[in-house]
Amino acid sequence: MILKPIVKFSYYIIESFFLSKISLRLIGHQAKRRQFFLFSFLFGLATFLLREVLFPLWEIPVGIHTIILFIINIALLKLFFRLNFYMVIICDLFHFSFAIILDTINMWFFALMGIDAPQILASFLFSTLFCLINIIYYAVILYILKKTGFILIPVNGVKESF
What we know:
Layout: H1 3-26, H2 33-58, H3 62-81, H4 85-112, H5 117-122, H6 124-148
């Protein structure tokens, strides 16, 4: 089925876009549009390749692939946005914290309907629905952050010491 990889690839790029936008918004960083889209595409591509190609091929443990993605995100954030080291780490922590928290909420929502994680992973329909619900969560959070103008840690408030 050719549709499944296309949907997954699209989801990872959209997820990267929203999570990166949220995390950069929380530190008050305004990225240039083209730069941000390229960043989102590259991190989404890296996520897709690691989770959908290398993970099944080499049987990489879940925790290891998350650490690898964490490091890739740090490198891309530093390269594209030239943030100081502390802000890159904070931004990366926001990115992965939101992903973990919202995935957990979404899993709980599915569990209430009697659908567990293996069923979600095995079913294209459930997997796609799971992804769509996550995107809705991300869009709502980004909308709230933009409407309120909320910035948790201003990018200019942290100085780099090394």
